[in-house]
Amino acid sequence: MSFPEIFLIGNSPVVSGIIWFVVVVIFLYMARDSAHYAIRSFSRVLHSAFRLASKALVPVEKKLALRNREVLLADGREASERVMEREFERITATVKKELADTPALQRRIQEEITRLEDDYKQSTEVPPSPPGWVNAVDAVAKIPAKGDPVVVDILEDIHESLVKAHNNTTEEYRQSRKERHQLLRNMMPGWRKVLQVMETVDKNVTSLLERAKVIDRCMEDYEQILNGTDRAVRNLSSSSLNHFFISSFVLAIAIGGALINFHLIAAPMSEMVGGHARVWDFRIADIAALVIILVEVTMGLFLMETLRITRLFPVIGALKDTMRIRMMWVTFSILLMLATVEAGLAYMRELLMQDQLATSALLRGEAEGASQAGFTWITTVAQMGMGFILPFALTFVAIPLETFVQSLRTVLGVAGVGLIKVLSFTLRLLGNIFYYMGSTMIHLYDLSVFAPMWLERQIKGQKNAPRPVLSKDRRKVDPPELVKEAS
Amino acid sequence: MLKIAACLVLTLLLACSSDEPESNLPDNHNHGVYMLIDTSGTYTQQLQKAQQVISVTLSKLYPGDTFAIARIDSGSFSEKDIIAKVTFDDRPSVTNHQKRMFQERVTEFAKTVQPAKHTDITGGILQAVEFLKEKNPRKKTILIFSDLQEDLKSGYVRDVALDMKGINVVALNVIKLDTDNFDPKRYLTRVEDWQSRVEASGGIWKVTNDMDQLEKIF
Questions:
Q1: Is the reported ipTM for this assembly greater than 0.95?
Q2: How far apart are CA B170 and CA B165, in angstroms?
């Protein structure tokens, strides 16, 4: 007897089907309460589990956000202190350099002013005093002469003398006036000198004022950072993101430069270490070329550290100055030697390429050396130049690298917080989905046993029918017993 | 910290080393090519084309690769039939020099070669398989520059199982004989026989009569 035949009642599969359907519906109806309970419990288990997981992530997110804030403020404080330190150094240098001359300038101004005063005094017009004997002449003229020729002669002589004296006086007056004008004209360069000196002083003071404004701004930012204000956090966060993107861009360019450098020296390295020997799946020649480039980058890092341009290795910054300077020269020497070696390798690359071309030409049957162009020296020189310069260019990768490393922490922190928020939301959403799926399953179950339920309602009446009622709290579906008791 | 560093160094050394003796390990990226040139009868006139094939092959091989050329004559299962062989040096400059010397040797051979009376292709293939197994490169190729018409001298037994597992066998310049023109089935049967023989031995068979397609093989 085959498996389908076991379920055959009578000879008609349709009748068997209907009978089995009725039986199944009756069994489902009988198991309704238990099934509801099972579905509800299962959905609540999942709902609770997901909500619990979601809630568990909230303190983690807060902790991470707090930690991010602390790190951001600490980094911002350090950066701000460095900027202010630098600004104070600049102001000190400005004061020493530009304002050190202030006493001398002041003295010069004083001297010029004194000279101008003297010249001005000398240029003051002194009205010519009338001659004293004029009164005597006046007295003689008043003598009642009555036509005395002696008196007339005397008066005529006196008239002549007066005219002469008047002319002399006028001449003297003109001369002295000329001298006074000359003195006034000579004062002009003096005024110009004073003006220049005043302008220099003004420029120095203006530059100081501007530096002071910058320091004021830095101090304001620093105070905000110390107080841990939201504004400071926002500013630091956005500037950190900016730094991250800019340093990533510059690092990408540096990686491009390193790739070019790599291709420049990989082929000639195979002459030194072998063309086909491999470690894992990498040619030793490629590894050697990469190592040289990485050593150059490392020397560049150390050089930047010894010059105190970057602060990736506090140990180097903490060295004594003599040791640090020695280290600087050592790293520079190594870098110079490596750059020279690279230039040599670049030249060897060109020789190898020419050898390869000559061999290929020979194999193709062309005359050896026929295909050499006259401008190959340009590529040779360019390759050698690039081989020498690129290591020094890669030295400066330390600066964007430092910024990248510092800003990466912030970016990862922000991304971490965002990820946790998304995860928390997703878990909560899943919990709710499972909860409402449970309700849906219950309704679908009731749908499958709608016939006996309808019958029951008809038999027992509308009031006592065990209808499922949604409580005011939409999260709960009250079991029929509770609804009966309530009614 | 020291323990961790020691573990890392040990892991690195272990990764670099291997339990197998070096001679059993194939060189991971090397290519070994063994070329058989038919020098029997009128096929000797095709030698100029063979030189072109050799030039193309030389241009496609790199430091560490192996190349050998042997002639197919009356009895080819012999080292004396090897015209020239070379394993290219690690250094590219030396490799270029070796290629030039190799070509010179082949040119000299082409000037002095005499046609053979019989054609022992199987012997040549056996010799090629032995050579390639000894060198053990990663990729093994046998080029057969022949019309594939075997003509063994009496007394030569070549009913030997070939073990050509993992070897690419490329038949080049399989020119049609005059008798093939009367009955093309002879040509097709000849090629199919060699194909089934090579594939039954585990080899990978290919026929190329267009020299432009040769570069694709490498």
A1: no
A2: 14
Contact status, residue A349 vs residue A289, Cβ threshold 8 Å:
no
Of B55, B58, B64, the CB nearest to A275: B64
CA distance B92 to chain A (A): 6
CB contacts of B50 in chain A (<8 Å) are none
Do B16 and A275 count as a contact with CB atoms less than 8 A apart? Answer: no
Cα gap B129→B140, rounded to integer Å: 9
B85 membership: H or E segment, kind and range = strand B82-87
Q: Do residues B73 and B127 lie in contact, with contact meaning Cβ atoms separated by under 8 Å? A: no
Residue of B95, B105, B215 to mutate, interface with A, max A Cβ within 10 Å: B95
Q: Dump pLDDT digits (tens) for A347-366.
A: 999 998 888 888 888 888 77
In B39-78, which ranges are E strands? 66-72
Inter-chain residue contact A275 with B62, CB threshold 8 Å: yes
Q: For residues B14 and A447, what is the distance between their CA atoms, to the nearest angstrom?
A: 67
DSSP E strand stretches across A96-217: none
Tokens of B86: 């070379």
Burial per residue of B30-57, b for 16 or more beta-carbon CB atoms within 10 angstroms, e otherwise: bbbbbbbbbbbbebbebbeebbebbbbb
Amino acid at B208: T
Q: Where are the alpha helices (DSSP H) in B64-168?
A: 92-112, 121-135
Contact A261, A293 (CB under 8 A): yes
Q: Do B96 and A277 touch (CB under 8 A)?
A: no
Interval B157-188: pLDDT, tens? 888 888 899 999 999 888 777 777 788 888 88
Task: Report d(CA A431, CA A433) in Å as an integer.
Answer: 5
pTM for this one? 0.65
In three-state secondary structure terms, B82 is strand
Look at B64 and A276 and tell me if their CB atoms are within 8 Å. yes
The C-alpha atoms of residue B64 and residue A277 are separated, in whole angstroms, by: 8
- Distance in angstroms (rounded) separating the CA atoms of residues B147 and A58: 80
